[in-house]
């Protein structure tokens, strides 16, 4: 039986696919439900579908609840990025009552998949293109403030960074490994985690995508690199998106020489856009601090998805290499001995594989 939104039915109580079918019917694109193709969300509360749209296709994001388009983060940040000339998908239609945003269909080619089969020259070209986009995002910082964008009012402040590190502690040691540290170990570990959060929070802030990894970069039908999943943009350290691009979900730590080369290229890309000069050694130190925080935050997510939500097939394999990357950064920094000790003691014990 077809459902409709009435005075007694809240939109969020109608399944996402049915809400979308209802919207398409209203929009003159009535289709058989079988032509609404579910796309795989990535640890997201949103449901994504590829849909027929007036003779072509589009991608619809269906949110869990209705929203006000005037204050919706995705719409706000998309408008900001588009105004800054960044290659985000075009928003085609919005239906706040049903919690639906219809946007341009960029296809299925993630940069992650392309890099796995690319030649060395193409891989280099694509990574440099992506690094250039990070510098372009950072160059939009003043515009974000001028527009009073939602992202200009959010930051990787001490509270946010500490919350993410608490999430790591809860789900890596607790949910995944079922361990309880001694009171003294927990105190020492959390003291260092909060010290890390305070130090990163004190760094100069600039506009960050926040999840600039290679699965959030698409290669469209014309071969152009496009940015998706940008609704959580906020102000943070200059190194944040570069760490995400180079180190998120890697199978093994990259060489220190490669990371140094990428950092220097990024600093040149910033300079070419008139952004303030950053000392390379100081940037390297911040990059390592961000690597530790971002890596531990990611391990918390992978652990939660594996142990709490039963999605180990997709996430568990990244836990050990991410911890190896974090440990590499910690050794380079020569700091945070308790974090180093706790990770080193467990890195050869891949318990995540047993629960995946």
UniProtKB/TrEMBL annotation:
<feature type="domain" description="CHK kinase-like">
    <location>
        <begin position="101"/>
        <end position="277"/>
    </location>
</feature>
<protein>
    <submittedName>
        <fullName>Aminoglycoside phosphotransferase</fullName>
    </submittedName>
</protein>
<dbReference type="InterPro" id="IPR011009">
    <property type="entry name" value="Kinase-like_dom_sf"/>
</dbReference>
<dbReference type="InterPro" id="IPR015897">
    <property type="entry name" value="CHK_kinase-like"/>
</dbReference>
<dbReference type="Pfam" id="PF01636">
    <property type="entry name" value="APH"/>
</dbReference>
<keyword id="KW-0808">Transferase</keyword>
<dbReference type="GO" id="GO:0016740">
    <property type="term" value="F:transferase activity"/>
</dbReference>
<dbReference type="InterPro" id="IPR002575">
    <property type="entry name" value="Aminoglycoside_PTrfase"/>
</dbReference>
């Amino acid at each position: 039986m077809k459902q409709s939104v009435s005075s007694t039915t809240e939109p969020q109580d109608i399944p996402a696919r049915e809400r979308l079918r209802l919207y398409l019917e209203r929009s003159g694109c009535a289709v058989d439900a079988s032509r609404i193709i579910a796309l795989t969300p990535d640890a997201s509360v949103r449901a994504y579908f590829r849909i027929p749209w007036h003779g072509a296709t589009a991608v619809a994001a269906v949110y869990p609840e209705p929203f006000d388009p005037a204050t919706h983060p995705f719409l706000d940040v998309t408008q900001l990025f588009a105004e800054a000339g960044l290659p985000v998908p075009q928003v085609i239609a919005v239906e706040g009552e049903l919690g639906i945003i219809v946007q341009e269909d960029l296809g299925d080619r993630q940069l992650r998949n392309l890099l796995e089969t690319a030649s060395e020259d193409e891989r280099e070209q694509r990574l440099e293109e992506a690094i250039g986009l990070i510098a372009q995002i950072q160059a939009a910082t003043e515009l974000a403030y001028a527009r009073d964008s939602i992202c200009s009012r959010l930051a990787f402040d001490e509270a946010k960074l500490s919350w993410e590190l608490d999430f790591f502690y809860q789900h890596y040691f607790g949910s995944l490994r079922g361990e309880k540290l001694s009171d003294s170990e927990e105190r020492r570990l959390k003291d260092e985690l909060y010290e890390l959060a305070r130090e990163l929070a004190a760094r100069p802030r600039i506009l960050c995508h926040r999840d600039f990894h290679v699965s959030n970069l698409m290669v469209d039908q014309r071969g152009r690199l496009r940015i998706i999943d940008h609704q959580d943009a906020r102000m943070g350290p200059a190194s944040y998106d570069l760490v995400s691009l180079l180190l998120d979900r890697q199978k093994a730590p990259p060489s220190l020489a490669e990371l140094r080369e990428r950092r220097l290229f990024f600093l040149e890309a910033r300079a070419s856009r008139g952004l303030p000069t950053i000392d390379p050694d100081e940037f390297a130190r911040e990059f390592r601090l961000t690597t530790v925080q971002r890596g531990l935050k990611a391990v918390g997510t992978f652990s939660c998805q594996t142990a709490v939500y039963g999605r180990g097939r997709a996430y568990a394999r990244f836990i050990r290499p991410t911890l190896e990357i974090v440990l590499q950064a910690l050794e380079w920094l020569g700091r945070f001995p308790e974090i180093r000790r706790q990770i080193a003691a467990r890195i050869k014990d891949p318990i995540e594989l047993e629960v995946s």
